[in-house]
Amino acid sequence: MEQLVRLVGIARLAAEGTVLAQKQRVEYRTLPTRKWLNRCHSRRVPFDWSINPYRGCEYGCKYCYARTTHDYLERHDPGMFETEIYAKDWNPAAFAQELRAVKPEQIIGIGTATDPYQPAERKFLLTRQVLESMLHLRGVSIFITSKSNLVSRDCDLLTKLAEANELRVTLTVTTMDRDLARMTEPFAPRPDLRMKAVAELAAAGVRVGVIANPVLPLITDSEQNLEAVAKAAKEAGADQFGANVLFLQPAAQRVFFPFVAEKFPQHLGRYRASFAKGAYLRGAYPERIRNLVNDIRSRIGIPTRDMERASLPKPPGAQMMLF
Predict the structure, then answer these.
(1) What is the Cβ-side half-sphere exposure of residue 311, based on CA atoms within 13 angstroms?
(2) Is the pTM of this model over 0.90?
(3) What domains does the chain contain, in order, with CATH numbers?
(4) FRET pair for 122, CA 20 to 30 Å: which of 24, 73, 217, 299?
(5) Strands across the sheet containing 27-31
């Protein structure tokens, strides 16, 4: 009780939540929520509003930038981000009231922090209920980002939303190499399953693209790897492809660096040196990756994303890199 009294804001709300269900490695908890629709004021993101039905993500991606969001819950062990998943309390009437603030031509991003189609969605259906509640919107841009093939389950709602709004789904696929994907994204759906979802969405008439974010220096940054993803995306029916270089905030470094030390020890020194002064890379390396991706797009015949800058925050200042 004394600890609860000391907590404030969302950390207190999280502490007041209850356990919904448990699996072998994951616990699902409720998260009392004051609002679902979050206003975006940062110039580093192109959205006017963001929606994240869940906090935490059980995919366990070693590079995930969203791990820092659990710090706000006073959950400072970086591993808790993937084992303690919060499902926000759902109130359709309150959400409908929030949606009245959304104006035509504004942009809503779904899944800007954690995956809206992670395994919790099969159990709680929060993302589907969000989409159902948005069916009355007109003239709004809706962008959904996911690493899950489950997104194709909602083709019926996505096609309805697209009738009166601009709607786009983006699937994240960093590599087509199953073994490498299992190392870097241990509990995420296989790359081929994600590409199958791309094909299903495209066949349903949903505009769908693929991003190879983040590009991991010395691990997934080869021309062969990025071209394989772009080709698979094109063959599946994606009409856009993009990729941006990894950035590592401290919470992500606490997971990613030990991973590199174990699986790619020959690269650890270069990673530590390159990220010693901050989370973002600038200079010759990211410029080379941008040029490489542009060249791959040109050769394969797949355009850039409508919102290329939506996938990663932009570096706040210059930092030369060492890769």
Answers:
(1) 27
(2) no
(3) 2-310 (3.20.20.70)
(4) 73
(5) 19-22, 27-31, 84-88, 54-55
